[in-house]
Amino acid sequence: MKPFKISEAVVRRLPVYLQVLNDLHMRDVQTVSSQELGNKLDLNPAQIRKDLAYFGDFGRKGIGYDVSYLIEKIRQILKLDQPLNVGLVGAGNLGRALCNYNTYLKDNMKITAVFDAHPSMVGASINGLSVLPMDKLQETVAERNIRIGIITVPAVEAQNVADRFVDAGVAGILNFAPTILRVPDHVRIHYADFTTELLSLAYYLEKEGDDEDETVVD
Amino acid sequence: MKPFKISEAVVRRLPVYLQVLNDLHMRDVQTVSSQELGNKLDLNPAQIRKDLAYFGDFGRKGIGYDVSYLIEKIRQILKLDQPLNVGLVGAGNLGRALCNYNTYLKDNMKITAVFDAHPSMVGASINGLSVLPMDKLQETVAERNIRIGIITVPAVEAQNVADRFVDAGVAGILNFAPTILRVPDHVRIHYADFTTELLSLAYYLEKEGDDEDETVVD
DNA sequence: TAGATTGTTAATCGATTAACAATC
DNA sequence: TAGATTGTTAATCGATTAACAATC
Does the keyword Chloroplast apply (chains A, B) (predicted)? Predict the structure, then answer.
């Protein structure tokens, strides 16, 4: 077969599949069908099969998917089968929360450096990491082979931090600040701004006392 | 015109428009065209015009959109023109971070109660709020008219907390735990799991030493 | 008036779903 | 073998984009 591009929608579902599969694995489930996965995720089974089939023939007709094998394969696809070092700028509440989440980002992906522009914050210890000053960013990214930068600073400082990460040579950025950032094409940027989720959630709330499901405009 | 449903993709873009418009407003920009908005957001101008036109005729031909007026209108659409109380369960690092973000969730949307199952955490003060025990959840949601619940507890406890929120009568839930939750149809649930964003970001990183933009499979 | 830009229809594009032969 | 379930093609659905008349 020839190379082809996988759509973002597909890639975005892979971590979700992984989540459910890890859960099944923990509960010693050996095999799962696209039907069962679809039930758990509220997705069409055909879509799940199609998503997985982009990357290979992972299932067995009449049987389903071997849970452990599929976990291994998805981890390979997401490149989680190799070490991936992450740096974080902004040692505030959110930054500290993410550092402590480190256990959740299974094995190979790891926050290995934390930076903060505030002199008073430098030297503090967060989950075993000593907070570094911003002027150490460039060299630390190189030394520790950091390939992803996480931004947890206020919106006004986010672009500046992004520029520093780009200069230092990271390949991807995850931005938690509620602002759009400009980065060169070769750097991939994802947004994790919960305010977007929260505000769009407000749209769907019924007026108090209402009962209907439909969202309407007249 | 007759009632019709607005797609999720459209609703999800509204908060992003609001973000950029607020920024323009702060910089005293009076008027903006769909072209300019499109440049800032990397979106097609026609898409922006179409999105806004679902809700009304907010622009002026030959001129563009009045920034203040459009902000007002989008806030109305998202129901941010009325008070909306939010409760949060899980006073860990992430929960505390969100409480401190309170200033970001402009004016009307506000975290007005924080709960935690840990007795040692109860009574602690977070950004002016005293942490309440879980058995106060039901009555507090009613008393303070809380309509959205935020979940920032570990994955294993998330479903239980969601059930409590549902029983207490919230209309929407924002879940930060990396797990899929089951809620009745009349409760709207949104996910703010950053691990999904982080793992899918890993997929797009070039292998070290590579240079090309294309993501391929063979 | 001439230039700009909206609101909207029609065309295009892409993603989801249904259906089914292959096969475990 | 009979039942189950994949991988994949074709059909459907929905979202994005282009184009342009209306009009400021």
Answer: no
Residues of chain B found within 8 Å of residue A98, distances taken between Cβ atoms: 194
- State the pLDDT confidence band at A208, using cuts at 50, 70 and 90: low
**Nucleotide minimizing C1' to CA distance for residue B37:** C5
Cα–Cα distance, A106 to A109 (Å, whole number): 6
In whole angstroms, C11 C1' to A35 CA is 36
pLDDT tops 70 at residue B105: no
Residue type, A53: A
Strands (E), chain A: 31-32, 59-60, 64-66, 84-89, 109-116, 125-126, 129-130, 132-133, 146-151, 172-175, 188-191
CA distance B62 to chain A (A): 26
Instruction: Characterize A122-156 residue by residue with b for buried, 16 or more Cβ atoms within 10 angstroms of its Cβ, and e for exposed.
Output: beeebeebebbeeeebeebbeeeebbbbbbbbebe
**What is the pLDDT, as a whole number, of residue B212?**
42
| B62 sits within 7 Å of strand C by its CB | yes
Sorted by where each starts, the structural domains of chain A and their CATH numbers stand as 8-77 (1.10.10.10), 84-198 (3.40.50.720)
Nucleotide nearest B33, from its CA to each C1': C5
Provide the pLDDT for residue B1: 38
Chain A interface, best mutation among B93, B99, B145, by max A CB count within 10 A? B93
Question: Which amino acid would we find at residue B156?
Answer: V
What's the Å distance between residue A218 CA and nucleotide D19 C1'?
A: 27
Q: What are the phi and psi torsion angles at B32 (to 5°)? A: -145, 145
Does residue A102 have a known ligand-binding role? no
